[in-house]
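Anyone have tokens for Acyl-lipid (8-3)-desaturase? Sequence:
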Amino acid sequence: MINITKGVSVSVKKEFQFEFKTRFNTSQKMDYRKEILFDGDFYDVTDFISKHPGGTVIEYYTEKGEDSTLVIQQLHKRSKETVKVMMSALKRRPASDSEIGLNTAVLQRNRNLTEDFTKLHLELEREGYFEPSSVQAILRCMETLFLFGIGYFAFKSENATFTFIGILLISVGSTRCGYLMHELGHYSYTGNCKIDKILHSIFNGVGVGLSATRWRRTHNRHHAMPQRLNHDVDLDTMPILAFNAKVVKNSKDGKGFMVQNQAFLFLIDLFLVGFVWKFFLDPKFVLKRKVYLDMGCMFGHYCILYHMGFWHWLFTTWFTSLFLLGHFYLSHTFLPVTTEHKHFVEYSFLHTADVEHAPWCDWIMGYLNYQIEHHLFPTIPNFRLPYIKHRVKALAEKHNLPYIQHSYLEAWRKMFTNLYQYSFAAFYLQDSLILIIRNLLPSKYDDSNLMLEMFCFLKRAVVILHLMSSH
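Reply: yep, here.
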């Protein structure tokens, strides 16, 4: 076990202890306190939750059976010293096996998985896989700025063809900016949290039009528990999209026009999702929390859009939303959702999928086609992920966990099949089809049990064939 308080000065400890001093009377029962399990100890975070820089995601780990050790170590690898100071200011007590809330077999399995994952982490760390590359950082930044620059130059041309090419290049530049800001948000671009945070606001705000601060908060929730209902915010796409029937709260929502036809309206749906983020959720977030840097960068984006004109802006926004969200959705949406406790490593293998490992796909997807590796080690620079895939596969095999990988086209097919399967439209269509056929029959057949059975059989056959084709 690692002593996270080692090396922290007494004065710093006192400062944070005063800051996070409990507001509750010490005579109150421990049941009313909220604790997280970290590195074998329970830490009282009741009063810290509202002060947590990353938002309320920490509250997920106050649930019985959850262990925050690996997720804190991985998401906060670049800020270990800050984590040490904050944790040392919290009240802690040893955690007994009976208090953790897992049966003996699961607890032992989790410990074995943690031990092997930690060994792999330390090996990769010793070999320098977590170290950013200044060459890669410069090249990716130059690529993005080059696409924007050439695109703008062509856009200003009076030739309609060059104008269209310019808009297309600006759109591609915006997608590359999206991948770049993703890496900045994980602090794996320069490795310096302060620099990456500022650059994240600039590239995400000016280039994509979104708040970097809101992105970090929501994206970390996704990384903490991917595909976990009521935890992973990427599942909160209603009433526009429903990637799984369990995200539909009631039948009324499931009968909505957008959800019933989501497989056919997907190209429009992605634009609507991007539009809602860009012009409602993110502006609301930065105004409410007074995030001035994000606010200024987003304002710069709006100025650029105004200069481009409405229709040019519409195409750029649609293309960027389709390209980025479409590729992000390839790695999760057709996989099962869960409400059960999972080990940090299990989330990555059971609820995440890799897409084709090929250089051309690496570029198109910004190395996020190595999604399993990215979820296990979110602070490894993305360009290094291809080099660790074999070790990650070995970890999965040792613990009998699946390593899900699909070709690029197969991933798209699975996503659209999933959209259609959960659209509810297919089932309504079959009911309507049977009703139409029955109305076309002579009236003497209306009460025929034989005909009713035949129609019911036809309906079941259509459903079964559809489900078989989806696998």
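The longest helix spans residues 160-185.
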